[in-house]
Amino acid sequence: xxxxxxxxxxxxxxxxxxxxxxxxxxxxxxxxxxxxxxxxxxxxxxxxxxxxxxxxxxxxxxxxxxxxxxxxxxxxxxxxxxxxxxxxxxxxxxxxxxxxxxxxxxxxxxxxxxxxxxxxxxxxxxxxxxxxxxxxxxxxxxxxxxxxxxxxxxxxxxxxxxxxxxxxxxxxxxxxx
Amino acid sequence: xxxxxxxxxxxxxxxxxxxxxxxxxxxxxxxxxxxxxxxxxxxxxxxxxxxxxxxxxxxxxxxxxxxxxxxxxxxxxxxxxxxxxxxxxxxxxxxxxxxxxxxxxxxxxxxxxxxxxxxxxxxxxxxxxxxxxxxxxxxxxxxxxxxxxxxxxxxxxxxxxxxxxxxxxxxxxxxxx
DNA sequence: CGCAACCTTGCCGTTTACGTGAAAGTACGG
DNA sequence: CCGTACTTTCACGTAAACGGCAAGGTTGCG
Lengths: 177, 177
Hints:
2 copies of one chain form a homodimer. By secondary structure, the first copy, chain A, is mostly helical. Chain A has helices at residues 18-25, 29-37, 56-71, 76-98, 102-157; strands spanning 16-17, 45-46, 52-54. Chain A contains 5 helices and 3 strands; from the N terminus they run βααββααα. Chain A is flat and about 80 Å long. Chains A and B meet through helix 3, helix 4 and helix 5 of A and helix 3, helix 4 and helix 5 of B.
């Protein structure tokens, strides 16, 4: 971890330049700029010479985006939606501080909770469908293992029966819907 | 359900023409042809005049493909991989019947099982990462709900304290990795 | 057999999500 | 102050995943 050269004196809050931030998340600088172009994030700051500078929360946000894209398979458009919710939360945060009216605050918090529930629902839906696929694949695996066992018994003990193999009905998976 | 016109006398094994098959799965004929072009499937038959004709297993396969694409967010390339496994299974099926050698059959079944486990692993991986996101979102929801309750108590009982709101640390989600 | 509705194979267009320079500015160790 | 590596903003190029259209063949009721 020697401060090779281009490291902006790795002290303090340590703002990262685009390449460093991108590398830490596993993205390319180009992608990060593109995400910014789409309004998915904005660097915490800009240097004197207009270099993008990212802080810790930016990196987390990028990780979140990458997770949604890679793991959940969301399009950047869909991610923009979810992050717009996030933005709304931020604005709500400000609004929350702007008022002392308990009713207003309750409204803000309720909305925020609703957005979370919405996100959770989306993710849960995907998980359920994936789980259905896993279940199905496991069933097939189970049948195959059963046949392996049966074959092992046959081999090890003697001729059981020349039954023409009760294979699984040549159905792909079933894959929910 | 009147046999309007273009229905090929909906009897028997009922082979579907591309539009019917596509509609049943929620795809467009164009997509189905494209999938074929990529080698993801081949219609069970062709009519006299070269019309594509799909059977039940084709439809299941299309559903599977759509599931992987929409739910799991796999690219068609990745799906092609998984389906290549499927194809290998089919070939294995034939090979299985071509031999009576228990050792050979065991090999075939073992390979098949391995492919299933591979598929299951991929899906499980995605599920885990998605679950991590859900957990994180739920934690945030929990904190928000906590604040809602606190506010309810404050409203219902009297002025508690004007503490400047102990909000959650403005971190997006965390999203595994 | 007539014709509307569907199908076929091209082939070009489009959107998404970047890759890849080009031209010019910036940061920084030496 | 210099060189080099990194950065900036255009701008064009590309692979993936289709949409849409054209030109022509097929199905099948009437």
